[in-house]
Write a structure and sequence with these properties.
Layout (H helix, E strand, L loop, with lengths): L2 H13 L2 H9 L4 E6 L7 H13 L9 E6 L7 H10 L4 E5 L2 H10 L5 E5 L19 E5 L6 H9 L7 E6 L6 H15 L2 E6 L3 H14 L3 E4 L3 H5 L1 H10 L4 E3 L2 H5 L4 E4 L2 H16 L16 E5 H6 L6 H6 L2 E3 L1
Parallel strand pairs: 1-2, 1-3, 3-4, 4-5, 6-7, 6-8, 8-9, 9-10, 11-12
Antiparallel strand pairs: 10-11
């Protein structure tokens, strides 16, 4: 083939789009950094929600976007280093989930890479955003308002044991929200003239001791504080509530599916879906500063009747009437 003919052929292939398509095929996929305070175990439903949100904006992991996962596995002190890893990668956007700690670590690591958080606390109080409607900066996301629901959970569980004079609260002392959760419960029990007993556990090994302390305190019911460690250890915690025969209000539905008594919360999977949607919109060019922080509009009360029977409890008709899901 003559050189002139080859150049003509090359130009024709480019005009037909063949070469640009090949070039595009070799381009690296945009990378999402996924930073979580817990571990991947027990996260199947939530991760499905996240990927569903990505799909709604046209993104599929492994097809047109890649995801780099970093799990702190309850070691909150590792979050700054994990966030720094993602920044050095570098990633196009960071999804920081399950508590404010990953988002705070990510925000400290970068002022330019967009961050989409998913947390149960107030993002303004946590210093993540300037306001809910106009976040400003490089951070936005979704809140489940978990801390703000503490007193509502207390009211619901109290209806099962109306004569209870003492209540237990399980918290992770390493959580950034531990103090806020204790304060919420102090205010709630003060109004009901109930004694509050706080039990601390930051890992699996400390849970048995925490439940022994709750049993010794004489608490008639237990409120589970919001923490990713408790999600990771949900089956262990559920087993301890049954063996200690203490009616427990959980902060997420999956614990009740696994045999816990009851929960009252926003839908976790949908909150993760919202994060996926925002990540996708940012990948398409929108700015975090222009995306308002999302808040739940619906909260779900889930009750497990089989567990209630095991604990020798009768769920009041009024509670069953407002339950969104009853597991029999």
């Amino acid at each position: 083939m003559k050189r002139r003919d080859f150049i003509t052929l090359l130009g024709g292939a480019a005009a037909l789009g063949g070469w640009p398509l090949a070039a595009r095929a070799q381009q690296p996929l945009p990378v999402i950094g996924f930073l979580d305070s817990g571990s991947p175990e027990g996260m199947t439903v939530n991760l499905d929600g996240f990927h569903r949100g990505l799909s709604e904006t046209g993104f599929t992991e492994g097809k047109n976007v890649a995801v780099e996962y970093r799990w702190a596995r309850g070691h909150y002190d590792q979050l700054p280093a994990l966030a720094a890893e993602l920044v050095r990668r570098p990633v196009a956007v960071i999804a920081a989930t399950r508590s404010s700690a990953p988002a705070i670590a990510a925000k400290a690591a970068t002022a330019t890479i967009p961050i989409v958080f998913q947390t149960g606390s107030d993002p303004i109080k946590d210093g993540l955003v300037a306001s809910l409607n106009r976040p400003g900066g490089n951070v936005t996301g979704a809140t489940r308002l978990t801390v703000e629901l503490m007193q509502k959970r207390l009211g619901l569980i109290s209806e099962l044991v109306p004569k209870a004079t003492a209540i237990g609260l399980l918290v992770n002392p390493n959580s950034l929200q531990a103090a806020a959760q204790v304060q919420e419960m102090q205010e709630g029990t003060r109004g009901r003239n109930m004694a509050l007993h706080v039990a601390n556990a930051s890992n699996d090994r400390e849970l048995d001791a925490a439940f022994a302390a709750i049993a010794q305190s004489g608490a008639a019911v237990l409120i589970e504080g919001n923490d990713s460690v408790f999600i990771d250890q949900r089956k262990h915690i559920v087993a301890l509530t049954i063996s200690n025969k203490i009616p427990t209000m959980f902060f997420e539905r999956d614990s009740v599916v696994d045999g816990g008594l009851m929960s009252y919360s926003a839908n976790f999977a949908d909150s993760f879906r919202q994060v996926g949607v925002y990540v996708g919109r940012i990948l398409k060019g929108e700015k975090p500063a222009d995306l308002p922080v999302l808040q739940p509009t619906k909260f779900e009360l889930v009750v497990n009747l089989k567990t209630a029977k095991t604990l020798g409890l009768t769920i009041p008709p009024g509670v069953l009437a407002i339950a969104d899901e009853v597991i029999e």
